[in-house]
TrEMBL record:
UniProt-listed InterPro entries: SRAP, SRAP-like
A Pfam family matched in the record: SRAP
Ranges in coiled-coil conformation: none
Name this protein carries in UniProt: Abasic site processing protein
UniProt family annotation: Belongs to the SOS response-associated peptidase family.
Domain of life assignment: Bacteria
Assigned EC number: 3.4.-.-
Magnesium recorded as keyword: no
Keywords: Covalent protein-DNA linkage, DNA damage, DNA-binding, Hydrolase, Lyase, Protease
Gene source species: Cyclobacterium jeungdonense
Amino acid sequence: MCGRYSEKNDLKKIEDQMKLRLSEKAKNWKPSFNIAPSQLAPVVTSDEPDLMDVFHFGLVPHWAKDKKVGYKMINARSETLLEKPSFKPLVVNNKRCLVLADSFFEWKKEGKEKQPFRILLADREVFFFAGLWSSWKDPDGEIYNSYSIITTSPNKLMEKIHDRMPVILTREEEKLWLDPDQNPKDLLKLLNAYPADSMEAYEIEHDASNKKWNDYNPCEIQCDH
């Protein structure tokens, strides 16, 4: 699964690099070393592929009775996207999105202990996870936009740490994932593990499972990898 990740870059920098507009909410969003479920984070949706907005991490389907369901839907398995009633309509109806990140965290079991790792790309400072998004209306009529990160089987680097990993898209795949004219079944072919030789992983001392941990830069502590 992918339950914690980071995006420490100022979105103004991203706006200039990627030629994206920022929504008003995105303009006020603060970079985070530890994005946790329910928190707001940057996304680009298929509805407005030239706009970066901020949605809540953890998908809340439009039919949900309570937004707390989002804590159980932070991830969507690529292998069953077109089988699950919560996700199939989003894939088919182009409710697809890109989730901005610069790294993600995962925990390796070592006996009774779990060692946290930070994983990033060797050749790209920022990248996008493949995601799905939805809009939910609360009892007061307020719109709550949210998303889920798609996961897949691990590559050779990640399988030493965990049995799942988020789907990271290449630049060309990002365009295809948002393209409304793509056949949903063809899109499933994009949801593979990113090449292991283009990724890096190292142990970190702080436990990213604590969402209060967000004032520490994991880049400062590295080990051999």
